[in-house]
Write a structure and sequence with these properties.
The protein is of the alpha/beta class. The protein is built from 7 helices and 28 strands. The strands form 8 sheets. It has a 6-stranded mixed β-sheet, with no helix packed on it. The longest helix has 19 residues. The radius of gyration is 31 Å and the shape is elongated. It starts with a helix and ends with a strand.
Length: 400
Amino acid sequence: MISLSEARTFVLDRVDSLPTVGIPLADSAGLVLGADVVATESVPPFANTAMDGFALMAADTVGAPVTLRVVGTIAAGDCDYPTVERGEAARIMTGAPLPPGADAIVKVERTTFHEVGSTVEIEIEVEPGNHVRAAGEDVRPGDLVFEKGTLLRAGHLGVLAGIGHTTVDTYRRPRVGVMSTGDELVDGGGPLRRGQIRDSNRLTLLALVRDSGFEGVDLGLVPDAEAAITSAFLEGAERCDAIISSGGVSMGAFDFVKVVLDRIADMRWMQIAIRPAKPFAFGISGTTPFFGLPGNPVSSMVSFELLARPALRKMAGHAEWFRPMLEATTEIPLGHGPDHRTHFLRMEGGPDSTGWWTVRSAGGQGSHQMSAMARATALAVVPDGASIPAGGRCEIIPLI
C-alpha cells in the first residue's frame, strides 16, 4: 500500500490547469480569474451624495441653525444641475452628483424645507466632505482590482461590472464525464432480479462534480464488456476534460476497466493506506485524465473527495486544492487497532458560534452504508492505531 500523500502527489503532478477563455461576465460566477484585472476608470466615477438632503458649502453651516436659499433639485442621473454659491443650497437625492461649488451634504432629517420662498433651515454644522462619496473612493484607474487566481463570487462580479467589464478571462470550467461499470448494476425503479443492484454511484458522483463547481456529463451505465468499455472511454475522452468511472478498479476476474485503461492510457493502479477507498486508479490518455474510483458507494464518494476533487480544482485554476483540516471535539470514542491505514469516519455535527466543531457518528461505517454518508457533514481523520476518547479532539475534513 502507498500513503494518501503519495497518491495525491502522483495525481496532482500529472494534471494541469485548463486554458483560459474570455466569457460573458454574467456567466463567470464560480470560475477562477485567468489574468489580473487592472481598473481603467474610477468608482464612483464622480463625487456624489450618500444621503438624501441638501448640497451646500460647509462654511455656510457655521453658527447653525442657518437659513439658505434653495437654487434647485438634483436627482440621481441628472446631467444638468445648478452651481451652489455662498448662502445657497440644492436639494439632492442619494447617488446624485455633487454640484459645482458644494463641498458637503446635510441629510434631510437635519433640515426644514420651506417651499414658499424656496429656503431651507440647516440645523447642524458640518465639515467639508460630510456624506460625500469622492470620485475614485473605491477604485482608481491603475488599481490592481483582482489578481489572477481569484475565485469569482457575486461581489467580484459587481466590482467588475462597475468598472465596465462585460467579459472576463477565466479558467475554463472542467467538463467531467461520469460512468458506472458493472453487469450487476441497473438503472431505474423496476423490480430487481437476484444479484442485481441499482446504480447509485453515477448520480451521486455527478452531483459531487456539479456541487464542486464543474460541469458534469453523464456517460451512462456501461456493461462489463471490453468493447463497450473501450467505446465509452474513448468517446468520453473526446467530449470531456476528465473522466471518472466507478467500479472495476480492484482485482476481480471480470474487471475489464483495467484491461481497457491499460491499453488506451498510461495508468497506475493503487492500493492506498486508507479506509474506505483503498483501491484507486489514475492515468492519462492524451491530455485526458482518468479517475478510477472503487465501486462501493461510500468508497466512491470518499475517493472523489480525497483524490479526484483536488485534481479537478487544479484543472479549474484554483489556488487551494484541498478542503481545510480543522480540529473538533468528538462526542464518541474514535480509534481502531493497527491496520496500517488512516480511517475516514463519517460524522455529523457542525460549528458553534465561535466556529468550533463538535461531531458524532453519522451511523454505520461500512463502505456500503450510504445513509451515514448522506448524513455526514464531516470526515473524521483517525490515524493508524489512534485512540481518541469521547470529549477528546480529533481532526476533521468539513464537507459543508
